[in-house]
């Protein structure tokens, strides 16, 4: 990852939602189906409750999509995270 978030921001990779658990393909045109769950890849220096590797949930309209090297990531403030997923 060639990005380092500043302050209380985090960078998340969306969970792949292209197929359902039963193997049904979901087309990219299903914009409303975008995942609001993903893995934290980087955290800023002021982030206190979230660490790299955590799975998190966030609101549908939170964060900004950032594209680097052909990959899409979501950058958001720590406060935009609704919950950590406990595995």
What does this structure look like?
The chain has 87 residues and is mostly beta strands. It has one domain: 10 Kd Chaperonin, Protein Cpn10, Chain O (Roll). It contains no helices and six strands. Strands 4-5-1-2-3-6 form a six-stranded antiparallel beta sheet, with no helix packed on it. Strand 4 and strand 5 (71-77) form a beta hairpin.
Q: What's the quick description here?
A:
Helices cover 0% and strands 39% of the residues. With 87 residues, it is mainly beta.
The CATH fourth-level homologous superfamily: GroES chaperonin
CATH architecture: Roll
Hey, roughly how much beta strand do the residues contain?
35-45%
Number of helices: 0
Radius of gyration: 13 Å
Contiguous uncertain segments of 5+ residues = none
CATH uppermost class: Mainly Beta
CATH topology: 10 Kd Chaperonin, Protein Cpn10, Chain O
- What kind of sheet is the major sheet? 6 strands, antiparallel
Helix percent band: under 10%
Strand order of the largest sheet: 4-5-1-2-3-6
Q: Output the structural class.
A: mainly beta
Order of helical and strand elements = EEEEEE
Count the beta strands. Answer: 6
Overall domain count: 1
CA(first)-CA(last) distance: 24 Å
Tell the overall outline.
globular
Mean pLDDT across all amino acids: 87
